[in-house]
Amino acid sequence: MQKLLYSINDKPPFGLTLLLAAQHLLAALGGIIAVPLVIGNVLKLPAEDTIVLVNAALLVSGVVTIIQSRGIGIIGLRLPSVMGTSFTFVAAALAIGFNEGVSGILGASLVGSLVMIIGSFFMPYVRKLFPPVVTGVVVMIIGLSLIPVAVDWFAGGQKTDPNYADPANLAMATFVLVIVVVLVQWGKGIFAAAAIVIGIMVGYVVALALGWIDFSNVENANLFALPQPFHFGLSFPISGIIGMSIAYLVTIVESSGNFLALGNATNTEITGKHLRGGVLCDGLGSAFAAIMSTTPFSSFSQNIGVISLTGVASRYVVTTMGVLLVLAGLFPVLGALVVSIPMPVLGGAGLMMFAMIITAGIQMLDKVERSKRNGLIMAISIGCGLAVTTRPELLHKLPEFLQEILGSGITVGSLLALILNLVLPHEKAEVKEK
């Protein structure tokens, strides 16, 4: 177990809590607004409709994050879990949107959320399928799948960007990375706990001095925006409901893996009760998102890296981050200001955060018995998960429903680890390697 600066029920001083909450916000905000932006752009929605999707995503992310972290009755994980819009649903959403519009996406999402809501009550049985060898593999694949995202941030955007991997971008990202490493290793108190946000703030100031910051989005953002429930209406295409239901099944697997990784990062043993509350919150949160005019939700794995790196596992910090997200949804100018942070500045911190999740997976697998059977589970699951992550075109000629199920390396690796653990026989006299 790693040493935590703040455990799940610790309450740092208010000022520090606010700073640490901002740290989580910086790690998550780009991912939260990316899905509604992609859907709005691909479907060529009017700018005002895309803004409705984005504002609702921020607001609902905040509300669901608060519930997931604090809990209400049987709902919620009661761990520092950040919730946001999920890319798992993008393919299904676009397929529905081209034929039925946004109303079809939201109607199918609302009905499909029943898959997670009902499925959550079976999670105590599912938990038994995750022995240490499977859990370790899942955690490791989560980290490995996030590395390409961090690398793109590090390089300054997407491969198609003209300044991708420009030496200036790499220098800025490296500068921020060095600051984070120094603060984590040698910093004390607030400097260690807030290493990521301090590194990003220093990088932002340098980027501002270099003239890298584009404030156009801040200038164009509304100061205040009210949520707009049922803005697009709801329709219920059968084929769309089926597609969304499949995406929700995939999300159950991914969220379970994230919750197990979060348990490792917070030194908490994840039980079936935890998984039930977490997945139930996922499902209800996605239903709420459809009503509030945005796309479905799941837990964010990148914020697990923040906890692993800083040792700050307080759920009150993440609850405060949820309040900041609600404010960002009500005051879009705040979200626009965070979005103005250059990609290389985020990349310097992101690479370190996501690599820490890989390290956690390695440490978990190091405690697993070394045998031929366990070696096969690790090798095949991690290898196939990485194959899909690094070469997604591998699946392009498969039927659409299979692409939907197997489109995530985390899902492929997790499912293979689960299946192989059930299928491969235990050796009667397994010899441990020295």
From TrEMBL:
One of its GO terms (molecular function) is xanthine transmembrane transporter activity. It is found in: Cell membrane. It is a multi-pass membrane protein. One of its GO terms (cellular component) is plasma membrane. Pfam families: Xan_ur_permease. The chain crosses the membrane at residues 50-67, 79-98, 104-126, 133-155, 167-184, 191-213, 233-253, 316-339, 345-362, 374-390, 405-424. Keywords: Cell membrane, Membrane, Transmembrane, Transmembrane helix, Transport. The keyword Transmembrane helix applies. Belongs to the nucleobase:cation symporter-2 (NCS2) (TC 2.A.40) family. NCBIfam families: ncs2, NCS2_1, pbuX. This is NCS2 family nucleobase:cation symporter-2. It comes from Otariodibacter oris. The lineage of its organism: Bacteria, Pseudomonadati, Pseudomonadota, Gammaproteobacteria, Pasteurellales.
